[in-house]
């Protein structure tokens, strides 16, 4: 079952259950996917690949995390709680996040493959690591792992 079909089914379930926060978030996901679909459309109809759908969801999740930090720093726990609720719904549709061990393993393999030995090679390693871990790991986590492994 595609992500769009899953979202449609979940949206109907949220309507029936009366869960307004969940319904609002699912509608926002659906709108973001449709917007992305329209932006890549050339002539006729376009379908999003799984990777493109994941990009949209990752972007939405990142915005929610940033908002949570902003609202928490701005002493607005009510707004932060709302963003956290939306983030938890969005995360249901994201792939399972990579563990710290998985991230370290992937980064070590990339370092070995590229022959990276110092911080000068960080860009090369980061590019490949983010490609491998797309949608599964936060960029900051990957960056910290790369820095740790390249700085003896």
Automatic annotation (TrEMBL):
Pfam families: YqeY
GO molecular function per UniProt: carbon-nitrogen ligase activity, with glutamine as amido-N-donor
SUPFAM superfamilies: GatB/YqeY motif (SSF89095)
Gene3D superfamilies reported for this sequence: 1.10.10.410, Uncharacterised protein YqeY/AIM41 PF09424, N-terminal domain
Classification via InterPro entries: Asn/Gln_tRNA_amidoTrase-B-like, GatB_Yqey_C_2, YqeY/Aim41, YqeY/Aim41_N
Domain of life assignment: Bacteria
Entry-linked PANTHER family: ALTERED INHERITANCE OF MITOCHONDRIA PROTEIN 41, MITOCHONDRIAL
Identification of the protein by name: GatB/YqeY domain-containing protein
């Amino acid at each position: 079952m595609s992500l769009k079909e899953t979202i449609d089914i979940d949206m109907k379930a949220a309507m029936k259950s009366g869960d307004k926060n969940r319904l609002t978030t699912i509608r926002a996901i659906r709108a973001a996917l449709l917007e992305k679909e329209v932006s890549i459309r050339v002539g006729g109809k376009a379908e999003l690949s799984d990777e493109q759908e994941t990009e949209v969801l990752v972007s939405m999740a990142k915005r929610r995390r940033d908002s949570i930090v902003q609202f928490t720093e701005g002493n607005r726990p009510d707004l932060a709680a709302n963003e956290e609720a939306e983030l938890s719904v969005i995360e249901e549709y994201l792939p399972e996040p990579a563990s710290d061990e998985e991230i370290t393993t992937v980064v070590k393999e990339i370092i070995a493959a590229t022959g990276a030995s110092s911080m000068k090679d960080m860009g090369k390693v980061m590019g490949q690591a983010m490609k491998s871990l797309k949608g599964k790991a936060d960029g900051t986590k990957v960056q910290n792992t790369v820095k740790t492994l390249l700085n003896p």
